[in-house]
Amino acid sequence: MILSGELIHSGTENLKDEIRKIIPSCRMLEEEPMAKHTSFRIGGPASALVICNDEAELAEVLKKCSSSDNAEYMIIGNGSNFLVADEGYPGIMIKLGGSFDSVAIERENEDGSVDVRAGAAKLLSGTSAFLTEHGLAGMEFASGIPGSVGGAVFMNAGAYGGEMKDAVISVRLMRPDGSEIIELSSEEMEFGYRHSAVEESGLIVLSALLRLRRDDPDEIAARVRELQDRRNSKQPVNFPSAGSTFKRPVGGYAAALIDEAGLKGYSRGGAKVSEKHAGFVINTGGATAEDVLEVMRHVRRAVYDNSGIMLEPEVRLINCEL
Fold first, then answer.
1. Which of 23, 165, 208, 249 fits as disulfide partner to 191, beta carbons 3.0 to 4.6 Å?
2. Is 306 within 8 Å of 261 (Cβ atoms)?
3. Residue 3: pLDDT over 80
4. Which domains does the chain have, with CATH numbers?
5. Is a pLDDT exceeding 60 seen at residue 49?
């Protein structure tokens, strides 16, 4: 059933009243521009952005959200893979903070490996810095990925031949209604290319247990620097974007297909196909969500006409569509 704007608004306002009983006002930001919370720096206001600092708060907020009629809500993570509509989002955006922004060694194993617990809100860059400092190898590939642990687990993020599934041994998750916390093994997470079982289940990532190996901190740091240099030389890191715009199609690469279609530099308003890396649509300044969508639509049509391959978006579209 499609809800009318009036019903959604009414349901959301009632829900916000309930959430105010759980979350202090300093962590409930009403009519909050999502451009402040996405790496694209694009997006109109959410009815409210709610920051939950621990599992108890999150569970209570989710219980209120799931039992509320005619209201929308979702977890935003670090917003590094989101394109939010210019009109914004009519519901509640839930962001994790506080104890979720943590990383710590949990145990050392008899085989010499070390298990580290990383909270869902911890940035991959911060996680990488912690691991490097403690001489723990196996996550170097993720050092330059601009996202959080939770988002990376959600989509099995990867780069330079590594993926989250290579390091994750289990994931702590919460039911979408806040009723239960469970832990799934890496196998149960059903990791695939830019995919995990979380996408279909609606389960919310709380933390991930990573298994690393001991190595010399200087050698780990050198590998991290090498990968970051490669990233900086090949990707448009000086412009806001959501990373790779399209998924890698079977038997090819999105960037190569876009380049072959002659689309490098194609632009609409402030959105542009990067001339440095055709797989990125970038915000050159003042781009709107509709600018980005128009570029994506044109790219999909042109690539299909040129190759017969229909590219699928890797960026998550919030309250907008191709």
1. 165
2. yes
3. no
4. 5-99 (3.30.43.10), 101-234 (3.30.465.10), 254-318 (3.90.78.10)
5. yes
Q: Which residues contact 213 (CB under 8 A, 6 or more apart)?
A: 112, 113, 114, 136, 137, 138
Query: Helix, strand or coil for residue 171?
Result: strand
> What kind and span of H or E run contains 28?
strand 28-33
Radius of gyration of the chain (CA): 20
Q: Which of 47, 170, 196, 244 is catalytic?
A: 244
Bridge partners of 58, per DSSP, are: none
Catalytic residue (choose from 41, 117, 172, 194)? 194
State yes or no: pLDDT of 38 exceeds 70.
Answer: yes
Q: Is 206's pLDDT higher than 50?
A: yes
Q: Over range 243-249, report the average pLDDT.
A: 94
> Which tokens belong to 94?
């839930």
Which residue out of 190, 199, 260, 314 is catalytically annotated? 314
Distance CA 150, CA 63 (A): 20
Active site residue 194: yes
- The pLDDT score that the predictor gives to residue 93 is 97
In 9-32, which positions are buried (b, 16+ CB within 10 angstroms) versus exposed (e)?
A: bebbeebbebbeebbeeebbbeeb
| Spatial separation of the C-alpha atoms in residues 84 and 132, rounded to whole Å | 34
Q: Which two tokens stand for residue 252?
A: 């090819």
Structure tokens at 243: 């990373």
Torsion angle defined by CA atoms of residues 144, 148, 151 and 152, in that order, rounded to the nearest 10 degrees: 40
